[in-house]
């Protein structure tokens, strides 16, 4: 990892390459994660993309978030996919005819004028909105950006801490493996084993048109993903009526909610509103996160399975992401940094953090969220380390992220044992977060 410092010329080339990806993936109102594999707008992708896009065009970054929030449901949920009606149905599965959001006539109140999925993704949006505002406060005030997005963001958090507090603990629950954004993480293997898969012959996986089968979730995973999504849809996406055979409190999801609640406090203060309720909620979330999900023996936060009410004893990068939370007890910060440096998460080939414990029984260096290192989680850990003053460690991750992003053609993820790119290329959040770290 002792590599020569980057030159200004290398930074310029990298900045141009990253900007090119974001320009190519812009559709006019938002950005697709990938032109091939993911040809629609994704929720947490858009938040990460806006964080990078703000350095190219603050206005475009605002529009990225606004177009996503325009698809918000009446109950406050922000859907994980907003479909582009110009893209053919077969280009991505599950498509609008599976989710049936606009026609279901259900109590959750999906918009009638566009098509979305019915599940959610991690709440990075308020953090992104605050960072986008900070990139150009004058332009943001001129367009009334924060005052327009603030009610959407508060309704979004109210949904998560209301209808989605399935454990009654004060944390938000995920009800589908697509919701934490880490689809086939080994953390879900146990809870998913209880779900009977839908026959894989009954649908067609469009992801395999572009992705290598060894890099993607298995057919058995997909059979279960489809079963869970269909059951939720058939319960009209009503969290009270749905049985939720899969329900967990995920540490990364809730850490992002906590940090976003702090961002809501900052936004409220900027708008002349009272930040105190948001600050208090962020502090409550921090305490609950520690009380419910911290595991001293693992040296990491663990997901809690709400069906069995037990912690899932698998360590993943999601359990290190709470480093982002500013009010974390110092002893926990020390322990998390130790885990990052230990054999489970320190890879020699790259400082990007593997998605799953290198020494864990399910580790797979190529299969998606079962080992590969991702750029969004590296960005979160980098930011978390800086939050707690660990700048030298953060510098190592930053340098590795910049080098690997450019060298891999802005890959979706990398093999942590070799540093080699895998999955899609010209991947938007890889480019966006590269731009952010170059500033
Ligand atoms: C399902 C778009 C999304 C990311 C997720 C990533 C992957 C989708 C898929 O792609 O999930 O939502 O089809 O595999 O796991 O984090 O938001 O980039």
From TrEMBL:
InterPro entries the UniProt entry points to: 6-hairpin_glycosidase_sf, 6hp_glycosidase-like_sf, Glycoside_hydrolase_63, MGH1-like_GH
Pfam families found in the cross-reference section: MGH1-like_GH (PF22422)
Keywords attached to this entry: Glycosidase, Hydrolase
Swiss-Prot/TrEMBL GO biological process terms: oligosaccharide metabolic process; protein N-linked glycosylation
GO molecular function, a single term: Glc3Man9GlcNAc2 oligosaccharide glucosidase activity
Domain Mannosylglycerate hydrolase MGH1-like glycoside hydrolase: 38-430
Keyword flag Hydrolase: yes
Protein family: Belongs to the glycosyl hydrolase 63 family.
Designated name of the protein: Mannosylglycerate hydrolase MGH1-like glycoside hydrolase domain-containing protein
Native organism: Streptomyces indicus
